[in-house]
Here is the input.
Amino acid sequence: MSGSGFQMFSVSTLWTVFVINFLALGLIWAYVMRSYPKFEAARFWTGSAFAAAFGAALAMLRFAVDSMLPLIAGGTVLIFAACLGAMGVQRFYGQPTSWRGTLLITGLSFAGLTFFVFGYDSIPIRILIYSLGQSLPFALTLKLLLSRQDGRTNPGARLAAVVAIIIIALYTLRAGASLLHLGGEVSFVRFTPLHSAMILLLLFLSMAWNFGLLLMAMDRLRNEVADLALLDDLTGVANRRHLLQRLTEECGRSERSGQPFALLVIDLDGFKAINDNFGHAAGDACLQHFTLMAQTRLRPGDMLARTGGDEFCILLPASTLREGAMIARRVLEVCRKDAEACVGADIPISVSIGVAQWTREMGSFPDRLIAAADHALYAAKKDGRNRHAVYDCAPPLVPAIEGEAMLQPVLRKQA
Here is the structure.
């Protein structure tokens, strides 16, 4: 071997490294897929890595047989692997995947490679077709990788996008050099120093691409774990921790703007008796059923949270006490209608609700607002349950309507 340092690597050595690299990446993605079965993108990326290893292994059979078929098959499978990687990106961003596009790119590449081997033998055109087949899937992912999700760009996606752009540029350079006969003639069994350098760079970029995908996966999984820490396991709504976070945010926002917000504290009536008489499974089912009913009566932006046992809260941003009472009546109405429809072994659900509104005296302390809503809840229970009571610091300007009882500070209990 002469001069160039790149010629220290034989063609077979380069392809062997290619196979080993993608087998290792495939094992990593297989582990991710097995550990997180709901992470659908990992399935495509696992398939992409193993398909790339298989395609490179097929191409290496060209050294063992005097036929171009292994090279055509290997190149086609490598293009298919790139398409699988692009499909994984689509699934990562929740986009529908279509096998039609993948099969179209793969099929046309196979047809083109076959024709320019057996119909009209042209290495430059084969390199052009292969470069197009590899570049197109990467190009199709760029818009998604560079998009912003929830107001932020995923760092791993940014890395993958940069790598994809470099890969596309490199394949363009390789195809152009081959068409213009720059860097000497190239064949599968004999690479020029320029093409050897390009293969090594593509190998490095494939690892960087997968590293970007891994960073994307880690960021997504970390966010999912953070979300789970803020959700109630049984009902799927926000938990107490999440509620307190939101209440603190709303208190701070209201302190700055002066805009009020409301809080409902809800307790299922006689829940202990349900557990004692029907079992905890029935009690859990009642909690889940109430959650579904209550959510049908909330507005966009309202937040339902389970704060423990049979206790729930509803946070109503930018809402007055009157609007809070309206939501409380809606929740009571849906529970009453559901109870009236119960037959046989069905368990009717009734609730008591306390309603309170943030005031400047409460400041940035959410526990004061919770205490006010709790005070109203106790009044509703004391007055017979299956109703709501409103905590109002300001005395009414008109006499109380019939059916309302007054406590200090003003508590208005309503059926």
Summary: The CA atoms of residues 252 and 364 lie 6 Å apart. The chain is about 60% helix and 10% strand. The first strand starts at residue 262 and ends at 268. The longest helix spans residues 193-228.
